[in-house]
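wait is this the right file?? whatever heres the structure
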């Protein structure tokens, strides 16, 4: 969608976002959210503009981005699959589930399949702790995911 925007356009739109948020206390997270909202991800070209605007180093901005798992460094695929990695799901085998999904899709966390179809992202609790392990595909929740559940979930998008 917006992946074709030039670096200059990304920088100038980011500058507008930074300016609009600069009066906030703790503006970095709202700015990152607004940038992701605008572009669908947080482009590399946006980072120096954010860093300069807030008097931070690029590494600091990057560090915050990677600490919170909400921010995408690259455009997402057509479908976004979020797999819960929080405690209740961990205890019900979400790691093994994630491994199966990664192998089947041929991607790692935050990766997108080569055909641009599916992006895999971690999420920390989907509110389905009693029915873990849980995942969400394009906003639809899937609970107690086992092999059959994975087939059903991915079958719905032809994977
Ligand atoms: S811990 Fe996974 S849904 Fe709550």
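ok assuming it is, sequence goes like this
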């Amino acid at each position: 969608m917006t992946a074709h925007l030039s670096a200059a356009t990304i920088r100038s739109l980011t500058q507008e976002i930074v300016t609009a948020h600069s009066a906030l206390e703790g503006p970095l997270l709202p700015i990152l959210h607004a940038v992701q909202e605008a572009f669908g991800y947080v482009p590399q070209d946006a980072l120096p503009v954010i860093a300069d605007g807030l008097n931070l180093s690029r590494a600091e901005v990057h560090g915050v981005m990677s600490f919170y798992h909400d921010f995408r460094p690259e455009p997402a695929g057509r479908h976004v699959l979020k797999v819960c990695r929080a405690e209740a799901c961990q205890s019900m085998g979400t790691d093994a589930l994630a491994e199966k999904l990664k192998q089947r899709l041929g991607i790692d966390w935050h990766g997108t399949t080569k055909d641009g179809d599916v992006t895999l992202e971690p999420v920390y609790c989907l509110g389905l702790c009693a029915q873990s392990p849980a995942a969400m595909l394009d906003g639809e929740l899937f609970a107690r995911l086992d092999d059959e559940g994975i087939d059903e979930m991915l079958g719905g998008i032809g994977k």
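The mean pLDDT is 93. so i think its the right one actually
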